[in-house]
């Protein structure tokens, strides 16, 4: 058993496709991530997908990814791709361009 008191931090790089631009998806994502105390960022991509990075405890990151499948009220999410890696120690959560 590992003797680490700190929960393992993980990083999820997420691509969300569907009707996810112009529907408040990024702002809803930022608000949801901040509520869960996750670090990272979210942005629109030129190909009409949304890209996001979430860093935090695995269980919390997975909860956020479940949220992404639903998204903001007006969003219609078709697909969520996730790649996990090691957390890079991001601070805060923001919308980037």
CATH-level-2 architecture = 2-Layer Sandwich
Could you tell me the radius of gyration in angstroms? 13 Å
Number of helices: 2
What proportion strand?
Answer: 35-45%
Please estimate the helix content: 10-25%
How many domains? 1
Highest-level CATH class = Alpha Beta
How do the strands of the widest beta sheet line up side by side?
Answer: 4-1-3-2-5
Distance between the termini: 42 Å
What sort of overall outline do the alpha carbons produce when their principal axes are compared?
globular
Based on secondary structure, the structural category is alpha+beta
What is the string of helix and strand elements?
Answer: EHEEHEE
List the quaternary state of the chains: single chain
Unreliable segments (pLDDT under 50, ≥5 consecutive)?
none
- The beta-strand count equals 5
Would you give the CATH topology?
Answer: Alpha-Beta Plaits
What is the residue-averaged pLDDT? 94
Secondary-structure topology with pairs:
Layout: E1 9-19, H1 25-35, E2 39-44, E3 50-57, H2 58-70, E4 76-86, E5 93-95
Parallel strand pairs: 2-5
Antiparallel strand pairs: 1-3, 1-4, 2-3
Overall description:
- This protein has two helices and five strands.
- The protein is of the alpha+beta class and 97 residues long.
């Amino acid at each position: 058993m590992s003797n680490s008191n700190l929960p393992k931090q993980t990083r999820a790089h997420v691509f969300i496709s569907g009707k996810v631009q112009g529907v408040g998806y990024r702002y809803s994502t930022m608000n949801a991530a901040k509520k869960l105390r996750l670090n990272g960022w979210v942005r629109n991509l030129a190909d009409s997908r949304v890209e996001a990075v979430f860093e935090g405890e695995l269980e919390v990151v997975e909860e956020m990814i479940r949220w992404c499948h639903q998204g903001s009220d007006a969003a219609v999410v078709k697909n969520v791709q996730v790649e996990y890696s090691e957390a890079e120690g991001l601070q805060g959560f923001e919308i980037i361009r």
